[in-house]
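Quick one - inputs below.
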Amino acid sequence: MNKDEYNKLVKRLTPKENKSKNALVAFLVGGFIGFLAEVFATIVMEFTGLSRVDAYLVTCLVVIFLSCLFTALGFFDNWVTKVKMGIILPTTGFAHSIMSAGLDYKKDGFITGIGANFFKLAGSVILYGMVSAFLFAIIGVILYG
Amino acid sequence: MASIKFNNVYIKDAFTIAGPLESEGQIRKFDLTMDDYYYGEKSFIDAEVKMQKVVMDNLLYRNKLGKKIDLILGGDLSNQLGITSYAVRNFSYPFFGIYSACATFLESMIIGGHFIEMNTIKNALMITSSHNLNAERQFRFPIEYGAPRASTTTFTATGAVGAILSNEKSNIKVESATIGKIEDYNQKDATHMGAVMTPAAVSVLIDHLHDLKRTVDDYDLIVTGDLGSVGKDIFREFLKVNYGIKIKNHMDAGCEIFLKSQEVYSGSSGPVTLPMVLFNKILKNKKYKKILLIATGSLHSKDTTNQKKSIPSIAHAVSLEVLS
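Output:
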């Protein structure tokens, strides 16, 4: 059996991931988190008189805090494993990635551990977020002046 | 010829520590179990070092071996065999640190067995361990990061297993062994180690049968290390398609530790998987007299897989005979 034939055999016997089910779960869970955040933001607006922009900022901070707290308490990762992208894609996932790396490397010292590894997973998001923001800004300037 | 026959090599005793999840799986009886991943220490590295140390202490004490150990052979999954080196520094015995990923235990059995067979030494202590959270950090993501996994992923077992090889006769005879070759079938997916390691397992099995002029039916049981539930099927299909061998007496140790309800994807992996199942399940079941062990190891590091290199794999085979 050569390598190509083996690869075909492996593909044939490897179970397929249920992508449509994963997408549906992500859609529902992600949507539900958005819904909860919207409810929270509305309550904040009603009770504090903050503007919509400021209420969203407060909501965002609360969501980040909660996902960091739940990561530190040790059960957020189990949720991520279950509902996958539904909880990774929002701000929750970003906070979780930073917090988990921070927790993991705290034994390795402040500089070589936490400092060097804090953005281990989130670094790509920041870098390519900036690069794409730059590119889209250029496109925006060309099209709309 | 890469096969060796042994006449006076025996397994005198073995000792196992199983992690918290492992001790609630299919096998319920171990020498010791851990309630949590820290095992009374401050870090997971310290916990794994302690696990190995406790295993070796118990083996030496239980068998009253004192200064009679001639050689310690051991390895684990950590960088530069950090865990084993730190555990063995507590013992003043000659030491070989060895690495074949999850095939490490059988490598130590072959090397130790050969020294005993040549009458160079009388007793060797073999030690190996893996810790799920140390392996996660070494090969995958930060520990608390709940990255979604593919269903083919295996879950590194937590535990430490040690055994004593001796020239003194006991119930378990190490009968023969075959040293495996590295195989690379251009598999690049480190989340599908069953597919990576199957060619090595098949290759060493075929070499073993050819060298010693045997068939798979000469064994009561053929145990592969940690191919997992998907890899197990690939292994059987590979043998059937390529060599026309239909294997009925096959067990994969990776499928024998955890329960399906424990959500460990494709099963257990790690160098402790095979010895844990061997000493706590297979050898306790008196049904099997002739057992062929095939431990499989995936020889990748995080850097080689990040650089999209295909993953080489290794497998070693050891045949055991249960006497009396």
